[in-house]
Amino acid sequence: MKKPSENNQHSDWHRIDIDLTAQQIDVDVASGLSGQEAKARLESHGPNEISSTSKRSPFALLLSQFSDFMILVLIAAAAISGFLGEPTDALVILVILILNAVIGFAQDFRAEKALEALSQMAASHALVRRDGEYQEVPAAELVPGDVVLVEAGNIIPADLRLIEAANLQVNEASLTGESYTVEKQSATLETDTHALGDRTNMAYKGCVVSNGRGEGICVATGMDTEFGKVAKLLDNSDNNKTPLQQRLGRFGKRLSLIILSVCGLIFGLSLLRGEDPGLMFLTAVSLAVAAIPEALPAIVTVSLALGAKRMVQSNALIRRLPAVEALGSVTFICSDKTGTLTQNRMSLEAIQAGGTRYESLPPADESEFWQTFGQALALNNDVQTGAQGQLLGDPTEVALYEAATAAGYNKLKLEQAMPRVGEVAFSSERKCMTTMHTHANAIIAFTKGAPEAILERCSKQMSVDGSKVPLDQQAIHLAAEDMAKQGYRVLAMASRHWDSNPANQTEDQIESELCFLGLIALIDPPRDSAKEAVAQCHDAGIKVVMITGDHPATALAIAQRLGIASEHDKVISGEDLEALSDETLKASILDTTVYARVNPEQKIRIVESLQSHQQFVAMTGDGVNDAPALKRADVGVAMGKIGTEVAREASQLVLLDDEFKTIVTAVKEGRRIFDNIRKFIKYTMTSNTGEILTLLLAPLLGMPIPLLPIHILWINLVTDGLPGLALSVEPAEKEVMKRPPRPSTESIFAHGMWQHMLWVGFLIAALSLSPLVWADLQSSEHWQTMVFTTLTFCQLVHVIAIRSERESLFSIGFTSNPILLITVVLTVGLQLIVIYTPWLQSIFKTQPLSLQELGLCMLLSSVIFFAVEIEKWLARRGLIYATVKASVN
Description:
The chain is α+β, with helices and mostly antiparallel strands and 889 residues long. The strands form 4 sheets. Strands 10, 11, 14, 15, 16, 17, 18, 19 and 20 form a 9-stranded mixed β-sheet that branches. An 8-stranded mixed β-sheet has the order 8-26-25-24-9-21-23-22, sandwiched between helices. The longest helix has 40 residues, at 661-700. The radius of gyration is 36 Å and the shape is elongated.
């Protein structure tokens, strides 16, 4: 036997008939492959397993944590601190570096588990026909050409082109994300293109057989299967940096160059003035160490960790800490429909009977029509109750069972009064099923199925008053089409009375001369909280887009209910996407709100098109098919209850309650955290600017060196770390969810931040140098201690003043962040101890200040508070600084 054609790699097997499939893949369906040929093909194609090609070793993961430029700068800062005899500073920096490396390593190592979880979603054994006999073989040894048999409860072991399907139903939720089972058949599909969910003559690896049995030719194994394609997409998806990581990376590089240049300038100017070279070198190096915000990584880490803790209390589990901040920058949320925006269950929404639409099944009463209808819903299904009271069965039948129960039609009681005496099982060819029950010494048959299949078997219809009337097929067809356009899954129900059991009749005879009862509209209903959550996203400048594997009409109907789409919006299907060029897609991507029947590659394409417009994209999902896009998106959001392990491993955020509204809570927390990190950068860089300008302006103005190296290092120690940590717990500002997201390309110094750093830095320097003038007039020798104290107090007043970017401190309250107030009081106490403790005076070269001198230091530093309040007053009125503009409409 020759090797199979290379055509077995293509993906359009659903369009090829069974004989041609067997010919192309070179197999005799009746006998299957020979053992020798199967072995040869296994060597050629490899095992039927999901593998990763880019898995990094733990050492490589750990080493990558030290490649960031800012990390290298901090390593240099630690070395310089050690050289200066400041082991405490060096130790603190090293601890921060190790902490960041451990956290980053844990996150990256956990991300590598996504492919491992995917590989576990496979059958362990498979029943195949080889050498003319049935054999059970390890699923890993399946090869293209194997004839595979599957039945209810089996996991499909490879991609199969079905050659036989006996009432075969497959749950493809793990691959397509849709909750309902798919009815399979073996006939060739004639149209050119079909989404995965529409390929009814294919069975895919990893999906579960929920009913019936089938037989198929294995056309793809391992990484060539649809599951394998998902694995490749996961493997090829890069881990994107969050906007904050990008901003801090650029910030660190620029900052180090500026600091080194300024410190070199100060050192050079001091040498020209004849200052002691050794002292000035230590001063310049001390200033460099102080100016590098070594507390920044710690502040970021602590802020993200505290934010993650707050989020998990709101049912949002953070898997990667940077995602906490990243959520605050999201401009688009690409959401899966099933289980995310909807409840992941079918529900009866309406009944069309006698030309009238009813929102639910009326309660059980004496009406013959509604009694018949209720009995039909309750009895014409195979729903069973599990040990814990859960309903087991097809989601559609569960919905019918629940609707009947709610109206008072108890299936158990009805089965006792009307026991089932026969049935005609559902088949994809007939598109209907029938059950027969004893009723008043006779037999009543209930039939449900596709409207077109039921109508062709009906000869009359029952009106709501119980009378039999002529069948109006045209009106019923129009009603069914209208329901389908509204996104409903439509079924029809009919009945027939028999004088005796028709068990000896053929299926066609049993399902003929039926009496039409009505149409049933079913839908996976939206979550109660989803509409409000979508509205909140819009208020926050975030556009919500639905990307689903469901039918376009259903997708659009749900999107319109939730406010995602308007009545004028159109759906782009997977087939439409296939035909669109990248340029055309990019031109329309910002205005499209609903995508239907898309495959995993197309989901990634949508995300990448949005990202090409500098949009920051969050993707929600629960199925295996969502995993590549979850990983490729800037923030992947997986479902905790219904989501697959593969989706969770590929995501950065898991919604423990599967509620879309939890994303809104997470976005608010992300924005708060980013605001607080930005406040810390604003605070520490303004403080550092003040320190640098104090040392730079003094020699230019003919003043003596105002600070010693020990003073610089002390100020850095007490004013950077603790106040910065206290800023990380600052509450969210009032309008945090009423403003648009910050563009990912926006500088971290935007909206007046760099201007603030400069002018307040100059003000701090001027106020700190003022005691030199005062001391000269008063002939005081305490001028250096006064400069030291004023500079410290200015920074503490500044950290209080910038708790809000625009709101006055008088409106938000002085006590809303008690931790910050305690920190400021503690720092003031430490400064006073350094000034007034004799043995510390010799170490820090300080002198005890008089009450007048101390009062002057406090008075000068208070100027900062009122100056910043005036700045915020001007900003609120739009007189200074640009306002934040929306990045999406």
